[in-house]
Amino acid sequence: MIIKNFIDGKIISESKKTLDVFNPSTGEKIADVVNSNLNDFNNVINSSKKGFNQWSKFTPLKRSRILEKFKVLISENINELAKIVCTEHGKTFDDAIGSITRGIEVVEFACGIPHLLKGEFSQNVGTDIDSWSIRQPLGICAGITPFNFPAMVPMWMFPISIACGNSFILKPSEKNPSCAIKLAELFKEAGLPEGVLNVINGDKEIVDTIIKSNEISSISFVGSTPVAKYIYEESAKYHKRVQALGGAKNHLVVMPDANISQAVDGIIGAAYGSAGERCMAVSVAVAVGDIADSLVENIKSKAELIKVAPWTDEDSSMGPLISKQHKNKVEDFINIGEKEGAKLVLDGRNYKIQGYEKGYFVGPTLFDNVDKEMQIYKNEIFGPVLSVVRVKDYNEAISLVDNHEFGNGTSIYTSDGEVSRHFTTNVIAGMVGVNVPIPVPMAFHSFGGWKKSLFGSNAMHGMEGVNFYTKLKTVTSRWPNSIRTGPEFKMPTN
Ligand code: NAD
């Protein structure tokens, strides 16, 4: 089977080059995906231009009504979408449903676009002069997305961009491209005109073509930090508006006064859920003071019970990693951690499941006594590997979080309101939790980290999304019957 592009409402492609798509649970190749070329790209641009000309003239209310139908269709097809995600990504069925639901919430937010686009108005900014602001679409927007959320991350982008009146080109991860196509088909079924949402498949080559195109106004990127930085810097050369979200190393601080069982449950789900392949996964537990021994013991005993299995097993809590290369990378990091002298409490290497021996499974892995100079602490591993760092007090804990190069999310478990308030006010990270392990903002707030976790000035969705996908215009207006004073050469003051 060849997975093609979705261009102008049709499944087509011109390039004969393809890339392999695997089922991570079995390790089998299940499809080829087209590696698009310039002809495919030109087709996408022609379609997107046509789409924009038509769509930008739809009133916000008409756009909203199509989004409402789209929302209903996603809900009706959620099981099928989840199966596509599970087959190409490997996450468990419930987790896939949860991630699509998070995407639906962005569509629900975007349905409010008539309200969200309301500008500001001031009467009499000067004598008989009124002023107001309007938000207008950018034109053709592009989104480049990672493998770990094939439904949710694209839905952080295109529903809001399209609600704002833009046309949108989505370049999904080449590792699991099918979900994007299905979403585009559903949007078409909801009444979206052809060319408003196009999906183009491929790898770096097509991304570079997107960056260099003068026809595209903005790029939204989510992926690893080196690529996010590259996209941000290159796109600026071509005068694009850009938001580029990168990698993470999220710390969860456990204070001695925390409810330990809640903290352990929070850590287990956040460290090992989706096999640690979430940008908001907790990969560092910071044990403060004398809580460390009991924390490590409790995490170990719960992590050992996690059922690792393919998504087709209803009892599975954790599936495989995305690829053989990634499994090797994660296992290499476990080797490195051992050599660096961290204490390997739970070892997930060489994890075998009967009947799925070629699947890319790594079991829950736990390191204790990790220190900030170690490679396993500094790098994003993006697998089910949790490092425990022991610190003497709160000050040492917050400075650890602050000095890490990533600043996506962080959490604190404590029963002390003063400590919690100090943490939320001062910690250097974009998304902060208090007694909440994964503080992912809902669709009507905005999602984005700090430091090397986000390049650009706008986070995703919420009002940040509306602002990113629109240009601000401010009108100052006076009607001719007002008193005329002839030419003025000084700055007006009233
Ligand atoms: P990735 O950076 O390898 O790929 C992301 C996208 O960029 C893909 O569509 C890919 O085709 C393209 N790409 C890859 N290499 C490229 C290159 N050299 N030039 C141009 N384009 C290129 O990321 P991934 O492995 O798919 O996803 C995992 C990463 O994404 C992790 O680092 C994770 O933390 C991050 N992530 C971050 C967030 C966030 O909100 N900050 C959310 C999800 C995932």
Terminal Cα separation, in Å? 69 Å
CATH topology category name of the largest domain: Aldehyde Dehydrogenase, Chain A, domain 1
User: What are the low-pLDDT stretches, counting only 5+ consecutive residues below 50?
Assistant: none
Average per-residue pLDDT, rounded, comes to 97
The CATH homologous superfamily of the largest domain is termed: Aldehyde Dehydrogenase, Chain A, domain 1
Strands, count: 23
Taking the sheet with the most strands, its summary is: 7 strands, mixed
Oligomer: single chain
Q: Per the principal axes of the C-alpha atoms, what is the gross shape?
A: globular
How helix-rich are the residues, as a percent range? Answer: 25-40%
What is the name of the CATH architecture of the largest domain?
Answer: 3-Layer(aba) Sandwich
How many separate domains?
A: 2
For the CA atoms, what is the radius of gyration?
Answer: 24 Å
**Class of secondary structure makeup:** alpha/beta
Strand content: 15-25%
Using the coordinates above, name the CATH class of the largest domain.
Alpha Beta
List the total number of helices: 16
Bound molecules: nicotinamide-adenine-dinucleotide
Question: Strands, helices and their partners?
Answer:
Layout: E1 2-3, E2 5-7, E3 10-12, E4 18-23, E5 28-34, H1 38-55, H2 60-76, H3 78-89, H4 93-110, H5 113-116, E6 121-126, E7 129-137, E8 140-144, H6 152-163, E9 167-171, H7 178-189, E10 197-199, H8 204-212, E11 216-222, H9 225-237, E12 241-245, E13 250-254, H10 260-272, E14 282-288, H11 292-303, H12 324-340, E15 343-346, E16 365-368, H13 375-378, E17 385-391, H14 394-403, E18 406-407, E19 409-413, H15 417-426, E20 431-434, E21 450-451, E22 454-455, H16 462-468, E23 470-477
Parallel strand pairs: 1-5, 8-9, 8-11, 9-10, 11-12, 13-14, 13-19, 14-17, 16-17, 19-20
Antiparallel strand pairs: 2-3, 4-5, 6-7, 7-23, 12-22, 15-16, 18-21
Helix pairs in contact: 2-4, 2-7, 3-4, 3-7, 4-6, 10-11
The structure holds nicotinamide-adenine-dinucleotide.
